Every structure is written in C-alpha cells, then in structure tokens.
Amino acid sequence: MKVLYPCLLLLGLSGCSTFYDKHVEWEYVEPDSYPVLKAVGYAPIQEQQGSTENIRMLQAVKASKLDAYRELAEQVYGQRIEGQQVLSNLVLEDNSLKSSVDGVIRGARVVKSYAVGTGTYATELELDMKEVYDIYLSVAKPRRIREVKYY
Fold it and tell me: Does 30 fall in a domain?
C-alpha cells in the first residue's frame, strides 16, 4: 500500500504534464517592394587641403563621396539630434544643438561624380534596398514560423 500511493500519484501527475515534443517549420519572409534610395554629396574644391589644384580636386571627390554616404545613412537610420538651453535669471545664456548619424551602409554604388561650376564637386550615390536585403539574407537569414506540430 505504501508503494501503491506514490506510484498512483506519479502516474496522475504525469498525465497533467505539459512536456510535448514539437516540430517547428520556418519560412523566409520577403518584402513586397524594395525602394531605391538616392543621395548627393557636395564638397568645396578650394577649401580642401593640398599643394596643387589636382590634389584639392581629389580631396573634394573623396569628401563629396563621404557626404553622400552620410546622407544615405540619414535616410536609412535617421538622424540623432541633441539640444540644450541654459537660462540664468530667465535670460537665455547658451543655446546649443548637436546632430549625429551612425550606421553601416552596404551595397551603395556611385551613379555620377562631377564638378558643379568651378568651385564644388558632387557625387551621386544610389542604394537599392533589394541588394541590401540580399546581403542581409546571406548573413541573418530572417524567418517566421510556418507551422508547429505537437506530438
């Protein structure tokens, strides 16, 4: 009898168990449409550091490309803005505003790079979000649950 009660208790508790074996089927999710983002970056040629006009031109090409990448990062990730005001005796003494952009841009391509007038260089970039999605798939493999079977 002493052995029968613990066995019946264990048998009864095991019937209420929530331990199931399950099989989960996943499927990959693809967006319906892919936008193409465009950005233009500018840089003044004469303000660049360099001993000759050619060196300043090359520096402006690089600077305009970086400016275009910054603009793409703003479109993809947004822009962080911090503001601060200092009052003393209800008189505004200091007012500051800072902005920053942080992100990684992959898959952008240079569409055009050209001089605008005589003093500015411009670079146009394009970011096809389909290519970004393909790069993302190769790394992250996003998925969702298709079906769950309990046994």
Answer: yes
Q: Range of 141's domain? A: 22-150
Rounded Cα gap, residues 116 and 124, in angstroms: 12
Q: Kindly state whether residue 98 falls inside one of the protein's structural domains.
A: yes
79-94 residues labelled b (16+ CB within 10 A) or e (exposed): eeeeeeeeeeeeeeee
> Is position 7 within any domain?
no
Question: What total number of domains does the chain contain?
Answer: 1
* Better pLDDT: 14 or 85: 85
What per-residue confidence (pLDDT) applies to 78? 93
Torsion of CA 60, 63, 68, 71, to 10 degrees: -130
Task: Summarize the confidence of residues 21-37 as an average pLDDT.
Answer: 81
* Gap between the Cα atoms of 108 and 118, Å rounded: 27
Quick check: is 125 in a domain?
A: yes
Q: Which of 123, 104, 102 is nearest to 112 (CA)?
A: 123
pLDDT classification of 146: cutoffs 50, 70, 90: confident
Residue 88, H or E segment: strand 80-88
